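Researcher: Please predict.
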Amino acid sequence: MDKNLIIDVGVHTGQDTEFYLKKGFRVIGIEAHPDIYESAKNRLKSYVESGQLTLLNVAVSPQDEPITFYANLDKSFWGTISPDRVKESDRSFGTRSVEITVTGRRFESILAEFGVPYYLKVDIEGSDLLCVKALQQFDTKPQFISIESTKASWPALLEELELLKELGYQKFKAVNQAKVTQQLCPSPAKEGKYIPYQFEYGASGLFGKETPGDWLSESEVIKAYKSIFTNYNIFGVKGIISRLPLGRMLLETLNIKEPWYDTHASL
């Protein structure tokens, strides 16, 4: 494990990547959408030129071959290689997506080339487990990892946690991503250098020792997620209120949005 390396899978605008770089870490960033990749490369040009940042314009996929990527025209951060995920987004939220062909690459080969990072951040809309399962092929694991926790089903959520447990992760946090803009960087820093940083909406936010809240055991985080799934079932796009006549309009009027969470794990 390279203690100075972070791999950011799903760079998008580059806000998380920029945070890691400013804290002094070396970063391998992965972004599938060609236009978003170019925008992030331009934003972080000085880090690319210095060698602190390596950007890969690939989609993490099951095979090293071209793959269909569904670019969301309304919510660019919802781009995905998952046909089921894009159908769900377009049906539930009325968004539009177009198909483009991008370079696909197995995450195992990326780890083999660049090494196992200190922190692995994964946010690739329904395909996060491709990266997690790739870690099974390596003797060492990242000290910290974060993935966007599934909303698909309760068994799917338990599968994610079980996989992390099998890889050796023993401590967990469920971090509310809707509140990332409220996160404050601790001073003195617990990871890398201290920098005052304002996270944009959609960022993954603080990581490792700096993530908010207490570390939980597997049973404790499962209990936390039971409450979270109850919230989904009431206020979510498929929840009780949304299924009522004018229910979705009521939620919009009250500015009640379905939350989403990242699971952070530590060895």
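Model: The chain has one domain: 2-217+262-266.
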